[in-house]
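User: Hey, quick favor. My workstation is busy. Could you predict this chain's structure for me?
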Amino acid sequence: MDIGALTGLGVAGATIVAATAFGLWRRARDGRLRSAPVEMGNPTLAELGVEAGTPATLLQFSSAFCAPCRAVRRVCADVAQTLDGVRHIEVDAESHLEAVRELGIWRTPTVLVVDRTGRIVQRASGVPAKGQVIAALAPLLEPAA
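Assistant: No problem, here it is.
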């Protein structure tokens, strides 16, 4: 083998390793709810339909041809119907580009969990499991002591 062929094999191998590592990292993060505090009283949230005083709002950013967005819609709608005090709002990301930029929405679907004060407490990109969404909402729905 000549040096060019060995170099090509080395580059191909490094590319496969990097792509595999990225894929595993992406799979581990996809759909996971994580903390994401944003300043309280964000005016963009009110413009999108988030009402102050609602115990918890699931604010979903979707796009027209997004298949995972439909799955997230089902999960969030089901949770909102099941739990008192939870509201689900779906926003078309393409129609609200300024809000998308301001809130740091990088892909659809993205779900923001908003508390009664208008603070974003968690966010998930991808399709979160129903149990994860319920667990994220539980502290927001507990009666104040």
